[in-house]
Amino acid sequence: MSVSVIRRIAAPKKALTAVALVAASAGIAMTAAPAHAATTSSAAQAQAIAHKMIPDAAQYNAFANIVKHESNWNVSATNASSGAYGLVQALPGSKMASAGSDWKTNAATQIKWGLDYMNSRYGSPAAAWNFWQANNWY
After folding, report:
1. Is the pLDDT of residue 26 over 50?
2. Is residue 39 within 8 Å of 75, Cβ to Cβ?
3. Residue 29: phi, psi to the nearest 5?
4. What 8-state DSSP symbol labels residue 78?
5. Helix 107-122 and helix 125-135, axial crossing angle in degrees, nearest 10
6. Contact assessment for residue 128 and residue 138, using Cβ atoms and an 8 Å cutoff
7. pLDDT band at 39 (very low <50, low <70, confident <90, very high)
8. Where does the Transglycosylase SLT domain start and stop, copy by copy (predicted)?
9. DSSP label at residue 98
10. Distances in Å between the alpha carbon of 72 and those of 75, 105, 108?
11. In CA terms, which of 18, 36, 75, 135 is 20 to 30 Å from 127?
C-alpha cells in the first residue's frame, strides 16, 4: 500500500478524532440514534402533539395541567423514588408499551397511553384533573 493511500485513509480518521475530542471537551455526546426512533426533544413539540390528539379545549387543558404537574412536559421524566416515567408518569413506565414500542422516547405514544388511561379510569382528562386537584395524584 502506498504512503499516499495510507494518508488518504488516515486523514478522515484524524479529522473525526479531532471532532470527537472537541465535542467531548464541550460536553457534547456523539451518539447515533436508530433511524426509526421517534423522539420529542422539547416541551413545545409535545404540547403541539397533544393539541392535535385532544382537539377539545377543556380536555386538552385538563390533560396539560396534569402533564405540567407530573413531568413538566419532559418525555423522559423519571420519579427517583417510585420509578414513574414519562409525560404522564406511568408506573411502571413499561405499561406504555401497550401504546407503542417507542414509549420511552415518543411523546405521541405517551400521550395516547395517558389519554387511554385517563378515559378508562376517570372517564376523561377533565375528570382525571379534578381527581388530581383533590388528591395531588391521579
Report:
1. no
2. yes
3. -85, 135
4. B
5. 80
6. yes
7. low
8. 59-129
9. G
10. 9, 15, 16
11. 75
